[in-house]
Write a structure and sequence with these properties.
The chain is an alpha/beta fold. It folds into two domains: 131 residues, 3-Layer(aba) Sandwich (Rossmann fold), CATH 3.40.50; 65 residues, no CATH class. The protein is 32% helix and 26% strand. It has a five-stranded parallel sheet with strand order 6-7-8-3-9, sandwiched between helices. Helix 4 packs across helix 5 and helix 5 packs parallel to helix 6. The chain is globular. The two termini are 31 Å apart. 35% of the residues are buried.
Amino acid sequence: MKALEVLALTCSRGVATLFRDLSFAVTQGEWLALRGPNGSGKTTLLRCVAGLARPDAGEVVWDGKPSRGSEGRFRAELVYVGHLPGIKEELSAEESLRDALALRGVRRDDAAIAAALAEAGLEKRKHLPARRLSAGQRRRIGLARLALDPALIWALDEPLTALDDEGQALFRRLLERHLARGGLGLIATHHALFPAPVRELRLGA
């Protein structure tokens, strides 16, 4: 079983230490919930794990090997989704999905793209530019991306933001599917999710 390990991670912003000597592990089929108030370091921790920010100390280990020094292999197995959808206003839902997958080097045929957008409730809106979509519909493009990306590690920052009840239920189904195929997750969320996390990590306590 592959495991994502965070070992003695320390990170500060300015004079404030967000977390110190933070250690935990998540194995395949599990997800860990990051909890805590705004500004407690949840986003920073996710970015450190994803290699988008450098911690003051400590390291991230994937499958027994430090992520630093094997960035290409590690990033191929990790998908990071921030709290903003990261979608260009002029692109359609279909174009946005294709671009997001292409940036990850993921190839999917037209049928798979269409099926993922339909599952996300965007079948009738897939050709609309993002500027004509609601915040929740933009989020659903990200859900379609998760459905098609084979990455084993999900590092997600408040993935339920702007989603209605149906969208949240879809995310829960995608999470269950991801874990069942051997994926794992590190998810910052204020919501209760099923399947339940293996544990909760509370920052800023």
